[in-house]
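Continuing the batch. This is chain 6 of the set; chains 1 through 5 are on the previous pages. Same settings as before, nothing changed between runs. Recording input and output for traceability.
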Amino acid sequence: MVMRNLVLFMHVSLDGYVASSNGEMKWIHLDDEIFDYVHQRIAQTNTALYGRRTWELMESYWPTAADKPGATKHDKDHAAWYKSAEKYVLSNTMSPIPNATVIGGALVPAINALKQTPGKEILLFGSPGAGHSLMQYNLIDEFWLLVNPVLVGSGIPLFKHAPHRKLELITSHPFKSGVVAMHYR
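Output for chain 6:
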């Protein structure tokens, strides 16, 4: 059986941070060019993995985003994908929830079991704490990073607890804004 890849998909500053010290991410550049690229990228999967905090943010917005007055093309596209995606949440504190499967406790066997289920790749969105936990156990197979041309200086690093490992650059895609999408395996 072919194992599904677990792919981390995240915005990061040029100096390696995913959020400032207070969790702020206003430095992330978003525009229609990036939204279209992201939509094409996530259309290749049907499984989303989130940490608890990111899940709560996503679940509070995406189920109704396309129905709101003035919904953008991105809102409509991502909301449709979000509704159809199989969703998992990493949390040791959440009880079972509708619309997603909670993975708690023994992380390594749970993720390895998920990777062995049929389907396309598993995309971890944002969720720096979940990313740190998964990296600590070398469970992430690929990294899709949207590198923003900004120096944050301090904050939440992307690669906290990551063991030493060499990555291979698969593709890179520069945007007009200066953001560069980098795909590593």
